[in-house]
Specification:
The protein has 5 helices and no strands. The chain is an all-alpha fold. It has one domain (about 15-100). The N and C termini lie close together (about 10 Å). Mean pLDDT is about 90; it is low at about 1-10.
């Protein structure tokens, strides 16, 4: 039994954490395309990756898949497309750890 989900069933849908991470990464890619020249970088950030980074910084649920846990750990350790050095990094580590606590070998 997975103590995180309190079930033996596989997750019924995509891991919400993994979805949030992918949205953040897509926002970063959009930022890199739009923030050129004299663009107001803060405004571009506010409409591209900013809201998704905020969601990750406030994340309080465990990952619901192994892939989500691994990706949360990966982005917590990388700067380029990750959240290393941000408040979100600690949240990602906790989400991954909480998932792993619920997995029985």
């Amino acid at each position: 039994m997975n103590e995180v989900t309190n079930s033996t069933a596989a997750p019924s849908g995509p891991d919400p954490l993994l979805v949030a991470i992918r949205l953040y990464q897509r926002g970063l890619a959009d930022f890199n395309i739009q923030a050129v020249g004299d663009a107001d970088w803060n405004k571009v950030a506010d409409v591209t990756y900013g809201p998704h980074l905020s969601a990750l910084a406030e994340w309080d649920q465990p990952a619901s898949s192994f892939e989500g846990a691994v990706e949360a750990l990966r982005i917590s350790l990388t700067e380029e497309d990750g959240v290393y050095g941000c408040d979100a990094a600690d949240r990602m580590v906790k989400a991954a750890y909480d998932f792993l606590k619920g997995v029985r070998a």
